[in-house]
From TrEMBL:
<feature type="transmembrane region" description="Helical">
    <location>
        <begin position="446"/>
        <end position="474"/>
    </location>
</feature>
<feature type="transmembrane region" description="Helical">
    <location>
        <begin position="233"/>
        <end position="256"/>
    </location>
</feature>
<dbReference type="InterPro" id="IPR002251">
    <property type="entry name" value="Cl_channel_pln"/>
</dbReference>
<keyword id="KW-0472">Membrane</keyword>
<protein>
    <recommendedName>
        <fullName>Chloride channel-like protein CLC-g</fullName>
    </recommendedName>
</protein>
<keyword id="KW-0812">Transmembrane</keyword>
<dbReference type="GO" id="GO:0009705">
    <property type="term" value="C:plant-type vacuole membrane"/>
</dbReference>
<keyword id="KW-1133">Transmembrane helix</keyword>
<feature type="transmembrane region" description="Helical">
    <location>
        <begin position="322"/>
        <end position="340"/>
    </location>
</feature>
<dbReference type="GO" id="GO:0034707">
    <property type="term" value="C:chloride channel complex"/>
</dbReference>
<feature type="transmembrane region" description="Helical">
    <location>
        <begin position="76"/>
        <end position="97"/>
    </location>
</feature>
<keyword id="KW-0129">CBS domain</keyword>
<dbReference type="Pfam" id="PF00654">
    <property type="entry name" value="Voltage_CLC"/>
</dbReference>
<dbReference type="InterPro" id="IPR014743">
    <property type="entry name" value="Cl-channel_core"/>
</dbReference>
<feature type="transmembrane region" description="Helical">
    <location>
        <begin position="268"/>
        <end position="287"/>
    </location>
</feature>
<keyword id="KW-0407">Ion channel</keyword>
<keyword id="KW-0677">Repeat</keyword>
Length: 510
């Protein structure tokens, strides 16, 4: 506040006026806020390092050895807690997906065995519709920031951009539940991306001592109140998410190092390795527990996509040209995949901008289209006789397996249904499996590749937690195995190895 100056008669006005006039209505067209919009952007930038001012230096000098040890111990303890919690979430996520999707496939298959095809389609489509609708509703109404994979948000945070709400407790809960529902609904979406976001949310909440909004805080956890330490914890959480999704501790660290963070230190590398190692150990313990049949329909599926065998693979110079062709094809397909995905997401954004009702309607429409397509395509494949040396029961009566009966007579199986009426992890395992060169037809593999290629593009933009890693792996594995089937008589390599190479090439280029 300030007084008015002298008037013309030399008298001082007694009226006190504010320094900034409250009656000014003319907008300031030169300010950044006026140019961008009327609302101030809530996004802020992070500090890459701690401000080493005099207060910080003085506070650090007075710290004793006990306090320094406590600071270091708390870092490792939080990394241990991140690995433990993320591994538990990853296991429960896979357990729920395998049981939800498994029950759906078992009920549908049983009705197919009874020749009740109409009722089987109704159960299959209705289950997918309800699961998709549930994932879309909780995402649209409770936490819109939980939609998508969450990797762009985590990457932005680790590169210095702090957006509100991306690591909140609400986002974490919706991310977990919505991902389970979306993956179980037969939408061609993955759970690896949501697991990265989930791990980052867990790390952020632990770093700040919990959720203050819901009064779920622990004072002894509120130890790190600077951006650098919180960013390090989020990096460990993102690495733990990949490790929990693929049971790959080294892969999680490399993913965080190469794709996520731009600020890296040697100490952070060791803590990230420690976090992912905890994830691998805990997951291994739970998998061994479930192998005894104590986890419902979750047995050998879910977390292990393929096993590493000790035997050596022999190859010749003539096997190199098909492998090089896989790389070239993967580059072309990956570029085309990105081009189509960009166009589809632009259209989806125009629809989603119209309101929540349009978002939910789009998700339901994609679900109905997916159900009709997945149930109808196996009818195009011809029945194949069960191999005499099959390593499992043929045809498969349960949920997972390489020999789905579908509409075939006894002693025959439908190879295309064996890929479609399975979870994505089981489909990948079937494609990666060795000594199965004669199990799939060329036409079935080509149909499955084209279906996965386009369904993964159309399914990604819906308002639900969804990732792209697993769909791209499925798509690449199908085209890689198709190439292996084409060059099979002229190559000594197993078709499952071609599937692995195809998945790697498409994943690298998309």
């Amino acid at each position: 506040m300030a007084t008015t100056p002298m008037n013309a008669n030399g008298d001082q006005d007694s009226v006190i006026v504010p320094l900034l006039s409250v009656q000014r209505t003319t907008p300031n067209s030169t300010s950044q806020v006026a140019i961008v919009g009327s609302k101030v952007c809530p996004i802020e930038s992070l500090d890459y390092e701690i401000f080493e001012n005099e207060l910080f230096k003085q506070d650090w000098r007075v710290c004793g050895k006990v306090q320094v040890f406590q600071y270091i111990f708390m870092k490792w303890l939080l990394c241990f807690l991140i690995g433990l919690i993320v591994s538990l979430i990853g296991f429960c996520n896979n357990l729920a997906v395998e049981n939800l999707a498994g029950t759906k496939f078992v009920v549908t298959s049983n009705m197919m065995l009874e020749s009740r095809y109409g009722m089987a389609f109704f159960v299959f489509a209705t289950s997918n519709f309800v699961l998709t609708l549930f994932a879309a509703i909780i995402t649209a109404f409770i936490s819109p920031t939980a939609a998508g994979s969450g990797i762009p948000e985590v990457k932005a945070y680790l590169n210095g951009v702090d957006a509100p709400g991306i690591f909140s407790l609400r986002t974490l809960v919706v991310k977990i539940i919505g991902s389970v529902s979306a993956v179980s609904s037969s939408l061609l979406v993955g759970k690896a991306g949501p697991m990265v976001h989930t791990g980052a949310c867990v790390a952020s909440l632990l770093g700040q001592g919990g959720s203050r909004k819901y009064k779920l805080t622990c004072k002894w956890l509120r130890f790190f109140k600077n951006d650098r330490d919180r960013r390090d914890l989020v990096t460990c959480g993102a690495a733990a998410g990949i490790a929990a999704a693929f049971r790959a501790p080294v892969g999680g660290v490399l993913f965080a190092l190469e794709e996520m963070a731009t600020w890296w230190r040697g100490a952070l590398l060791w803590r990230a390795f420690f976090t992912t190692a905890i994830v691998a150990i805990v997951l291994r313990a739970f998998i061994d527990l479930c192998l005894s049949g104590k986890c419902g329909l979750f047995g050998t599926g879910g977390l292990i996509m393929f096993d590493v065998y000790s035997e050596n693979v022999s190859y010749h110079v003539g096997d190199l040209p098909p492998v090089l062709a896989l790389g070239v094809i993967g580059g072309i397909l990956g570029s085309f995949y990105n081009f189509l995905l960009d166009k589809v997401l632009r259209v989806y954004n125009l629809i989603n901008e119209k309101g929540i009702a349009y978002k939910i309607f789009l998700a339901c429409l994609i679900s109905i289209f997916t159900s009709c397509l997945l149930f109808g395509l196996p009818w195009l494949a011809s029945c194949r006789p069960c191999p005499a040396d099959a390593s499992e029961a043929c045809p498969t009566i349960g949920r997972s397996g390489n020999y789905k009966k579908f509409q075939c007579p006894p002693g025959y199986y439908n190879d295309l249904a064996s890929l479609i009426f399975n979870t994505n992890d089981d489909a990948i395992r079937n494609l990666f499996s060795k000594d199965t060169n004669a199990e799939f037809q060329h036409s079935s593999m080509l149909i499955f590749f084209v279906t996965c290629f386009f369904l993964s593009i159309f399914s990604y933009g819906v308002v639900a937690p969804a990732g792209l890693f697993v769909p791209v792996i499925v798509t690449g594995a199908s085209y890689g195995r198709f190439v292996g089937m084409l060059v099979g008589p002229h190559s000594n390599l197993n078709h499952g190895l071609y599937a692995v190479l195809g998945a790697a090439s498409l994943l690298d280029c998309s």
